[in-house]
Amino acid sequence: MTAGNMDKKRGIYIHMPFCVKKCRYCAFLSFDAEGSPRKEYTDALEKEIKLRAAQEKKNGTDKPVNTIYIGGGTPSVMDISSMSEMIKTVRRSFEVDPDAEFTMEANPATLGRKDGVMLAKLQAYKFMGINRFSMGVQSMDNDRLHFLGRIHTAENVARDMDMIRRKGFDNVNLDLMFSVPGESGDDALSDLEKILEFGPEHISCYSLQIEEGTPFGEMAEAGELTEVPDEEDRETYHRICRRLEDAGYEHYEISNFAKKGDDSDSPSPYRSCHNSLYWNMDEYIGLGLGASGFINGIRYKNTSDLNEYLSALSEGRLPIAEEHRNTAFDNISEAVFTGLRRREGISYEDAVRAYLEADDGEKKAPAESCDFRNFFWDIFAEAKEEAMGYAGRGLLIIDNEGLKLTEHGIDISNSIMSLFV
Ligand code: SF4
Fold first, then answer.
1. pLDDT band at 4, cuts 50/70/90?
2. Whose CA is nearest to atom 8 of ligand 1?
3. How far apart are the first and last CA of the chain?
4. Ligand 1, residues 15, 16, 18, 19: which to mutate, most atoms within 8 A of Cβ?
């Protein structure tokens, strides 16, 4: 067994923390766009981009970037000229692969009111190099959208998709939310049918989580909102999975489905390359308020305080709030935790390579004759019996190559993954 130097991919995540209006369930880091210092924010972001790139060059750790993802918040509420300047700064500061996947999240009803305005905005995004959109559709039922506090209607989604296709964008993800209080499984499936009519290349499906500190969280505490029971939630999830598989989508991650390509035996060409970085223990540079990153063996998180973010950058400092060099055990544990999210699971080899890659003087050295499987179970000796128990109950597949969750194992994925933490 050799430690190997895996050819790590690298991505950039940029956070835009502004939205037209806060949704009632939202616990993401976002503020109302109106009255927020958006221009100051993108100016600060440009400084952060340059500082990060300069640091990488100085350390000799700069590498080509394979994916860019602008998330939020709602990046499509940002002023086009500020966005364009910010992206130019990224391209001048980092070596971006010419074939990089470049995603921007865009919420329905934020691309413009008039056809001409929308088409011009989409053209500008095209010039910037954006080649993938991720749209927060959530539902195609106007009453449910209103209940969720979304600003858009089903008609907005149809119009935005029409414009996006007219501009030639051929890689689009649509988000679907299910288990909204009051919604039945049939309602969720009916939303899915309407989403399928748009022929998106990728669909992400999530059940609604009611979070503390949100209006929904307060309503639940006051007894005004009842969560969909777990059993019903899981039944709807499996119905969604089956319908998407019938419709020609590859279920490649717990919540993610990609349209199959011409060769249906090969991985779909529409898997999200950027999100795959997270599940593959690849590197990503997080930029912007509250953004997280993982580069050169270090996990970091930027401050979530907007004033602190702006003042750090005005003083020429990176706005980092937390930083941690991963130990070898952190690496293998994260590799298993995130790798189990993929339907193909995690191989012993990839997990052990993550372990051996860590810059950790305490890590165990494998014996010459030791194979990846034995080394893996040596590290997780305490978890082995319980893991075998899950395998015996048909929830986890453990073979000579590695481990993966079964369809029903997904329902208790957190319990299984926590064995390896
Ligand atoms: S659009 Fe997204 S980020 Fe913005 S408030 Fe709604 S859920 Fe939160």
1. very low
2. 26
3. 24
4. 19
What is the tens place of the pLDDT at every residue in 111-149? 998 999 999 999 999 999 999 999 999 999 999 999 999
Local confidence band at 264 (pLDDT 50, 70, 90 cut-offs): confident
Other CB atoms closer than 10 Å to residue 64's CB: what's the count?
Answer: 12
For residues 168 and 7, what is the distance between their CA atoms, to the nearest angstrom? 32
How would you list the strands of the sheet with 402-405, edge to edge?
A: 346-347, 402-405, 396-398
The per-residue pLDDT for 369 is: 74
Residues lining ligand 1, judged by CB closer than 6 Å?
Answer: 19, 22-23, 26, 28, 30, 72-74, 107, 136
What is the Cα Rg of the chain in Å? Answer: 22
Per-residue confidence (pLDDT) for residue 342, from 0 to 100: 96
pLDDT in tens, 157-190: 999 999 999 999 999 999 999 999 999 999 999 9
Residue nearest to atom 3 of ligand 1 (CA): 73
Which of 65, 177, 160 lies closest to 122, judged by CA? 160
Q: Which amino acid is at 81?
A: S
Task: For the chain, list the domains and their CATH numbers.
Answer: 10-279 (3.20.20.70), 341-421 (1.10.10)
- Closest Cα to atom 2 of ligand 1: 73
Cα 25 to averaged position of ligand 1 atoms, centre (Å) = 8
> Look-up: residue for tokens 């988000």?
175
For a substitution probing ligand 1, which of 74, 147, 150, 156 has the most ligand atoms within 8 Å of its CB? 74
What are the structure tokens assigned to 286, written together? Answer: 């997080």
Instruction: Check if the beta carbon of residue 115 is closer than 8 Å to that of residue 163.
Output: yes
